[in-house]
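Reviewers asked in the last cycle whether our approach scales beyond single polypeptides. To address this, we selected a multi-component target totalling 342 residues and predicted its structure end to end. The input consisted of the following lines:
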Amino acid sequence: MTCATERQLVELATGDGDAATRTHVAGCDACAARLGALERDLTVLHTALSQEPVGVVVHRRAWLPVAAAAAMAAAVFLFTVVPGRTPAPVSVATAETQSEFGEQLATALFAEATFDTSDAGTEAWELETALNGGTLCGDGYTGDDCTVEVVLADYE
Amino acid sequence: MMQRAGIALADESAVPTVAPANYDDLYRTHRPRVLRLCRVMLGNPDDAQDICQEVFLKLHRALRDATTPVRWEAWLTTVTINACRDQRRSRWWRWLRVHETLDDDDIPDSRFTPEQAALSNETRRRIWQAVRALPARQREVFALRQLEGLSTEDTAALLQLSTGSVKQHLFRAIRQLRLALEGSYA
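The resulting structure, written as structure tokens, was:
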């Protein structure tokens, strides 16, 4: 057998190695030295990561209350002190406008297409996520940040 | 080689770890490892403390609801991972991460000689920087496999990945983290 690859050595050091690699490393000084260096590194990593993180400034909370107070003061000023200020009307797309748009789109694309108005206005984030190439989680988030459902009964 | 603690998630036939269903005992036993997991997953001591507290608050509530023995060790691990993911995906947290700066003036650790402390702090700083730079999934796999001592199968079950994917993430994480150690032993 030729010398072990880095991946094989990592698998060996983390308990997933195969017997052939183990046998080879036992009889090969070069591979044994590489495995030794890897195990030493893993020990250093384990030790370092078992301690407090180093290298982060943790003063950010000092300005947090100041920023919150400033934001609140600005809000109070805008909504109470400024005379005669009324909020601008906000347009919201309703199910009717969405279904109307859907019907127009369907007509433009297909000769005899129909648009199911019952779907209008529902789960827009699903469409947005799909269009952006994301993977859907159950709770509306995507990819690596999906949470695992925790049911107490599963751990009994 | 790392010692393995092993949580019997994959092996359903295993005798469940019926930890003492007493909040104080569970807190004392598991808080250090939950906090360590949070630190590695989030890379920030303040956030780790907050999330750790949140996890044990959930434990307090869950203890009231539990009517039969529960494998609290495995439950805590899953809840911790979820809590860290919740924290990571909050926009506010992401913004803070972007605007966070690195501290170059660490106070030397008084337990070491100045030479040891200098090496130790420099090495630790590089390691933590490398951990923070890892993709979230690699960080999770590394923490569960190398720090928590879970098997590949248990890690795969917990993170809902294939065993091949777990091995791949672990290999990449270790390769990246070892780069941070280059020159540390001179």
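Confidence is low (pLDDT under 50) at residues 1-17, 102-113, 115-119 of chain B. We regard this as preliminary and will revisit it once experimental data from Aim 1 are available.
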